[in-house]
Q: What sequence folds into this?
């Protein structure tokens, strides 16, 4: 049997899940071919790269000169390289 605090916590978590689901649907509905973020990044001593974040949270890194895709993350996990990723895909092919 749940005590009042546990019931309140469960209700708050359920509300947070509903809010998150609604916000995700809203973001998906309003996402277009335009990236959420697109910036050129240059680390000292390195060539510049184009960093893009697209729906649903996929981070892609491109060579801005050739358009070659250098890295692509899993959706929602920008630190994890996408399984099966093959470097060299064109930006236009994505």
A:
């Amino acid at each position: 049997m749940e005590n009042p605090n546990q019931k309140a916590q469960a209700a708050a978590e359920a509300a947070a899940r509903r809010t998150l689901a609604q916000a995700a649907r809203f973001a998906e509905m309003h996402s277009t071919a335009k990236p959420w973020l697109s910036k050129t990044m240059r680390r000292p001593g390195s060539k510049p790269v184009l960093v893009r974040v697209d729906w649903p949270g996929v981070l892609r890194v491109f060579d801005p000169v050739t358009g070659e895709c250098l890295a692509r993350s899993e959706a929602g996990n920008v630190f994890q390289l996408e399984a099966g990723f093959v470097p060299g895909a064109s930006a236009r092919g994505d």
Residues 1-30 form one domain.
